[in-house]
Amino acid sequence: MFVVSCIITAIGLLLTLMAICAVCSLVRKDHVVPIYVINLLISDLIQFCCMIPLETKFDEMMTEIVFHIYLISVIVSICFMVCIALERYLVIACPLWYRFRHTIKFSVVLCVMVWVLSPVLCALTLWVPQDDYITYIIMGTFLLLPLPLFIFFLGGTIRALSTSRVPSDEKRRIVGILVLVLLIYTLLFLPSIIWFMAEMYHHHLTHLADVFVQLSPLADSFLYVFMRKGTIDKLLASVCCCRMDSNDSSRMDSSDITSSSV
In the chain, what are the domains? Predict the structure, then answer.
């Protein structure tokens, strides 16, 4: 686990810093401030900084403090993933409300609320008795709430695509971001949440769930790829080219077989 954490931290710190610089360059270029993405990357940066002290465990009291900071940053990360999905949904489903009501001031207030309420939630979770089964159910239910929200945002966005006047490349970027956020939560967070609610402990499976959670901030760096204009089009074009090449090769093979049989 120490070696895995070191590798994830080394790669993740580099990618997260590069993603933050790239997002800031997008702000200067497009004059659009992706506040939620920047806050998500900052929470990821805090998680990476907490991983190595948690594995070294040089001091018991310091390790406990770092663990609380790490837990708060994980909760903040999940909250900002919900904020990103909500924002992308409103762009397609409620464009007029998003244009006139969703101001930078509103986004800043929401970010401050997330950063303030997450430590409060973490403190309430740590103060309750840990051997209480109801506590595990309540905490697990709270952590499972983003899953139906992500599914609703993605389904509502796809349903509203036909009536939206947003440019087609922007639609593809919005759907790509929503799919990526849903995949990150489902594949990396959901196993640990289910394991937490099941109240079971297995040495290898517990470490595997921890690795999945540690990989989540690494996956958040790929949000920058879906924010760049033209990136989705290039990916789709490359996929289409690969399919065309495979179809051409299969047709050539079938024609060769037909000619040889004749």
Answer: 1-224 (1.20.1070.10)
